[in-house]
Amino acid sequence: MPAIILLQTLFFKFSASEESVYIFTKVGAEPYGRIASGVLELIAGICLLYRPLVWPGSGLAFGVMSGAILSHIVILGIVVMDDGGQLFIYALITWIFSAILLWKYRLDIPIVNSYFHKP
How many domains does the chain have? Predict the structure, then answer.
């Protein structure tokens, strides 16, 4: 689920849609923040589709969505350009599922694995 949301929103970021430009202008990060977040979301989405890279993908998605949620709460508001809060809800869904995946695949993280599997 998070990979679908992450990859689906890339079109809007990379095509400089009106809503994406508005959002990143309002947070003071247009165009570099829009492009950088798009690249990070692309990397996270691809990682989430490849089993050995689920843990870094979910960690990256969790971090990026944490920033998006914080931006909505502090700067943008829940509803952006009359979207009914749809972008905020997508960010929350992605954040929650990324946290679940990160927990599920926590033993794939080398430092966590070595801590729990000491000789």
Answer: 1
Q: Which two tokens stand for residue 20?
A: 């994406």
What's the pTM value of the predicted model, to 2 decimals?
0.91
- pLDDT per position as a tens digit, 62-97: 999 999 999 999 999 999 999 999 999 999 999 999
- What range defines the domain where residue 76 resides? 2-116
Query: Distance between the two ends of the chain, CA-based, in angstroms?
Result: 37
CB 84 within 8 A of CB 74: no
Helix residue ranges per DSSP H, the chain:
2-8, 10-14, 18-26, 32-48, 54-71, 86-104, 110-116
